[in-house]
Write a structure and sequence with these properties.
- The protein is mainly α and 391 residues long.
- The protein has a single domain, classed as MFS general substrate transporter like domains (Growth Hormone, Chain: A).
- Helices cover 81% and strands 0% of the residues.
- It contains 17 helices and no strands.
- The radius of gyration is 20 Å and the shape is globular.
- It is found in: Cell membrane.
- It is a multi-pass membrane protein.
- It comes from Brevibacterium spongiae.
- This is MFS transporter.
- Keywords: Membrane, Transmembrane, Transmembrane helix.
Length: 391
């Protein structure tokens, strides 16, 4: 296959893989009430299902770069798509909450591997088009975050909650077919990505870098709030008196804002000396959205949701900064693993802490106090995270 066709095939593969990295998460939370009416779901199940995505993304962040020392990026992406398709497909038909969680672990590990593999693939196959391909990667990831909650409840009305979940397993199957083809053809990269492992001297180097820690903390606290909203926004709105369809639509809206901004932030970040002003504005927006949702949830729910969506838009910017701040294709896998690994491990505490505080207190202020403190810390560390220069 000639070089031009190979690059087109890789673009298609990245688009499909990026889309598959979130539907298994955001397509589930609007259906938990319907699922709970058929399968008894305990409070522990709800806490664990909210914690699993960032936890497994974090573990994958440290595991995946090590796998580079034995397998290629093409092989890892293919395996990730298989894990997503099998995990999402089988969990949709099980009646066991424990098995549902186990299959979710399989699917989420696949998504976590994909999170870490795609930035080095972009750096490897498109070293001269990093901003453009980062826009494609981040945009499709956000698109795969936005669509599922928008259509989850309407789909469940027609085909049941199981059928609604199976739709995303079907997209996983498409990803499997596409990446098997790519794996068989094995298009040659423009720049080789070596086995950059997050361990030993490389881990020590990153752990000595204040900027690496700042970028990891900024990314982690962004995901900390992302997964709280992915898990709890529909529930908070239904508690305030809105119906499930409206709550699902608001979850779709809160993910749509990063989708839209994700198409412009990568190019903007590449042109700016520092993206700190953008992150600072996003932090203010997130804080105001939380305060509105807490104190006046029925007054302007759409406004609060839009402000929250703007606030969590730091995530596509953070993904772009990982690629832009890496010294070369080799270090991209290592930095991606460190930032996403540590960041997601930090983020996994968000849904768990929020669930504990909501269920333990009659008042909502402890839960909202935690998220507002997290926004303040993110505001403080982001200046160092956004500084120009290679990490």
């Amino acid at each position: 296959m000639n070089s031009a066709r190979a690059r087109i095939l890789i673009v298609v593969g990245i688009v499909i893989a990026a889309f598959n990295l979130r539907p298994g998460v955001t397509g589930l939370s609007p259906l938990l009430d319907a699922m709970g009416a058929e399968i008894p779901l305990s409070a522990a199940f709800l806490a664990i299902i909210g914690m699993l995505p960032p936890l497994l993304y974090g573990l994958s962040g440290f595991l995946t770069p090590r796998l580079y020392s034995r397998f290629s990026g093409l092989s890892l992406t293919t395996a990730a798509m298989v894990m997503v398709a099998v995990g999402l497909g089988v969990r949709a038909v099980t009646d066991s909450p424990a098995l549902f969680l186990g299959l979710s672990v399989l699917a989420l590990l696949g998504m976590g591997i994909g999170n870490v593999v795609l930035p080095p693939l972009v750096k490897s196959y498109f070293p001269d088009r990093v901003a453009l391909m980062s826009t494609v990667h981040v945009g499709l990831l956000q698109f795969g975050t936005f669509i599922p909650p928008l259509v989850a409840v309407p789909l469940a009305t027609g085909v049941g909650w199981r059928g609604s979940l199976l739709v995303w397993a079907g997209f996983g199957v498409v990803g499997v077919v596409c990446w098997i083809i790519i794996r068989l053809i094995r298009p040659a990269p423009s720049a080789e990505v070596a086995a950059a492992v997050v361990g030993g001297s490389e881990l020590a180097r990153l752990m000595r870098s204040k900027r690496a820690w700042a970028l990891m903390t900024m990314t982690g606290l962004t995901s900390f709030n992302n997964f709280i909203l992915f898990t709890w926004l529909p529930s908070l709105l239904t508690r305030a008196g809105f119906d499930a369809a409206f709550a699902g639509a608001m979850l779709a809206l809160v993910t749509a804002i990063p989708l839209v901004l994700g198409f412009v932030l990568p190019a903007l970040a590449q042109k700016m000396t520092s993206a700190y002003a953008i992150v600072a504005g996003f932090c203010i927006s997130l804080a105001v959205g939380y305060i509105g949702l807490w104190l006046l949830p029925t007054a302007a729910p759409v406004l609060w949701t839009v402000l929250l969506g703007i606030g969590i838009s730091t995530f596509p910017l953070a993904l772009t900064l990982i690629t832009l701040r890496a010294r070369d294709a080799e270090s991209a896998a290592s930095l991606s693993g460190f930032v996403q690994g540590g960041g997601y491990l930090l983020a996994c505490t968000g849904p768990l802490i929020f669930a504990f505080l909501v269920q333990s207190f009659d008042a909502m202020w402890p839960a909202f106090a935690v998220v507002l403190v997290s926004v303040a810390v993110k505001f403080l560390v982001s200046h160092a995270a956004c500084r120009p220069g290679a990490i």
